[in-house]
Amino acid sequence: MPGDDDRCRSAPPLASGPGSLGQLPDLVDRLGVRTSLLVVGPGMAPVAERVRRLLGRRCVGTFSDAVAHVPAWEANLAVASAQEVHADSVVGIGGGSAAGYAKIVALALRLPRIAVPATLSGAELTSRYLVTTAAGKEGGSSPTAAARAVVRDPDLLAGVPARVLASSGMSAVGACVEVLAGPSLAGRAEAAAGLRLLWETLPRLVRDPAELDLRVGAKEGAALAGRALEAAGPGPAQLVAEDLGAAHRLDHGALMACLVPQRGAEADLAGLPGAAALHDFAEALGLPVDLGALCPTVDADALVDRLARRRDLAGQADPESMLMLLKEALR
Predict the structure, then answer these.
(1) Which tens digit of pLDDT belongs to each residue from 305-323?
(2) Domain end point (choices 114, 138, 157)
(3) 3-state DSSP helix/strand/coil percent for the chain, to nearest 5?
(4) CA 260 to chain centre
(5) What GO molecular function annotation could you give as one example from this UniProt entry (predicted)?
(6) What is the number of structural domains in the chain?
(7) Pairing of strands 59-63, 128-133
(8) 115: buried, middle or exposed (CB in 10 Å: 19+, 13-18, 0-12)?
(9) Strand partners of residue 137
């Protein structure tokens, strides 16, 4: 995949708070774009319809086939869809899948990407992109893939299934833990603040998604997680979960629930409990916590070797750390 190692550090224009989706046309106008392709994640058709009504004639097409792990051939279809309708921008609506496809469209055609996140992954705030090929995951990081504008409307979480809130929220928790466990000082303040917010709000939100204050807090926590991940880059659990997810068609949040407690043992969790509490936290969300049961055919050595050979991870993938993490999680 094309790209570079630079990360876009400046915060994009933001519409935030209940009802902020209504500000989307103003954000689009500020970018100076006239035609938008909507990239819609699973279960996000009602939100996409609202976006279509708000954008009116600016909306020139919809790609609704976004699935987990961004298969390369489907990402190419999304790019072709944008070319066919002569879009000069791309709007990603949903969670990590929609953000992933929208990043590829933005990168391939050099279009501004507008993010309308409707889960808690925080993926919309990173410039890192990934696709799944026959050889596994491939990716990189480029300012061209970064969001040029973001709508962070907590009302969009109201109809999201509890399992999606739990899984996407655990992805954000995992990002925070990995930043705090990592060697870099970049993103640590955001990670600590995001982890506190998600720790306080996510379990209650899964039980009561109608509570507005919980949606607001969880949205802010997920955004901080995304900013922390953008600043620090992915850690061992993130890389292992991405590879396992693509190879075994498994949910990223569920994999992070199995792996993150091992990282929590190494992290400065800003006063929050460590590995055992992270295990209990994930279990309370209804997520799996046993990697061996979730993925019984894992060949740890082969997986780590595969990651170590990826050119896009040069300098990021530490084989020893990943192998230790996997063996601890598989015990």
Answers:
(1) 888 888 888 777 788 888 8
(2) 157
(3) 55, 15, 30
(4) 15
(5) maleylacetate reductase activity
(6) 2
(7) unpaired
(8) buried
(9) 132
